[in-house]
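Input record (one chain):
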Amino acid sequence: MIYDEEDVIRLVSEDKWMMDILRSAQSLNLPDWWVCAGFVRSKIWDVLHEFNERTPLPDIDVIYFDPSNIDEEIEKNYENILKRHLPAIPWSVKNQARMHTVNNDLPYSSSTEAIAKFPETATALGVKLEDGKVVLTAPHGIEDAVSFHIRPTPYFRETEERMKYYYQRISKKNWKSVWHKVEIDN
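The corresponding structure, as predicted from the sequence alone:
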């Protein structure tokens, strides 16, 4: 079972595939970096559904925060470096110091603030390595992830436009077809 953040850290730490991904991301030496979203949430749901095989992910989200260089091209360079490390991984690297412009928002102050503004609380999770140990950030806690509740983050609840995007995303992702215990909350 998964009861608290230490359980999530243990699950990630004991997963060689996940640790290889974290080590590869760490090798970039990016400021305020995290591997986030489905990478963490899917691991939790797979374990709690007692799946014997990992659910495939459409991408592995590596985020970082570097306001000194917000050129999107550098993100592609980082993705190419990661592809040389682990070519079978569908890497996606994004500098959160520029993502506020993509999201039509005020500038973010950190990667954790950006994670807090992800669409769903259960997806607003990130992990990284510090001094060889897994560290977890969960701005909205892990309760929704471990109880299979999909609900919008407070940020997405603020406007009708964001909620419209949230509902479209939930429909498109169709997580319940993979993880039958998932419940969609409003």
